[in-house]
Amino acid sequence: PDLFAAHITAPNQFRRMVLCVMPDSWPTLDYSDYGCYCGPGGSGTLVDDPDRCCQVHGTCCHQAMQHPKCWPILDNPYTNLYHYSCDKKNRKVTCDHKNNECEMFICECDRKAIECFGRAPWLPEHEHLPSNRCQ
């Protein structure tokens, strides 16, 4: 399979993982302000499955910050890098065994979210929702 390992900044790393599973998506644009949980913050009633993916990912990242093997500032899930591979042919991301326990936890948070996005149809009407929809 066509595999590659990524060692880049964390937001770019997540974006590249999304593109591995959904090569035709625009992850930074599609999910930065979508539903009630994709983007900064997150509250209110879920609007659809991609919104649920973001909620679950946010919860997982919060759990990573509480993980006993993660250092609070150094192992922030939004800045920590980890090792993974992308099988472009099968659209599959695999977290690498080289990761330490904290990196693996964060990588799995991202991998599971991306698999979730791959199964959940993105709906344009749920992009840029007014804040009163998410209370």
From TrEMBL:
Ca(2+) binds at Y37, G39, G41. GO terms for biological process: arachidonate secretion; lipid catabolic process; phospholipid metabolic process. PROSITE patterns: PA2_ASP. Disulfide bonds join C38-C54, C53-C116, C60-C109, C70-C102, C95-C107. The active site is at H57, D110. Keywords: Calcium, Disulfide bond, Hydrolase, Lipid metabolism, Metal-binding, Secreted. It comes from Cyclopterus lumpus (Lumpsucker). This is Phospholipase A2. It is an enzyme of class 3 (hydrolase). Its cofactor is Ca(2+). Belongs to the phospholipase A2 family. It catalyses: 1-hexadecanoyl-2-(9Z-octadecenoyl)-sn-glycero-3-phospho-(1'-sn-glycerol) + H2O = 1-hexadecanoyl-sn-glycero-3-phospho-(1'-sn-glycerol) + (9Z)-octadecenoate + H(+); N,1-dihexadecanoyl-2-(9Z,12Z-octadecadienoyl)-sn-glycero-3-phosphoethanolamine + H2O = N,1-dihexadecanoyl-sn-glycero-3-phosphoethanolamine + (9Z,12Z)-octadecadienoate + H(+); N-hexadecanoyl-1,2-di-(9Z-octadecenoyl)-sn-glycero-3-phosphoethanolamine + H2O = N-hexadecanoyl-1-(9Z-octadecenoyl)-sn-glycero-3-phosphoethanolamine + (9Z)-octadecenoate + H(+); a 1,2-diacyl-sn-glycero-3-phosphocholine + H2O = a 1-acyl-sn-glycero-3-phosphocholine + a fatty acid + H(+). Residues 10-135 form the Phospholipase A2-like central domain. It is found in: Secreted. It holds the Pfam family Phospholip_A2_1.
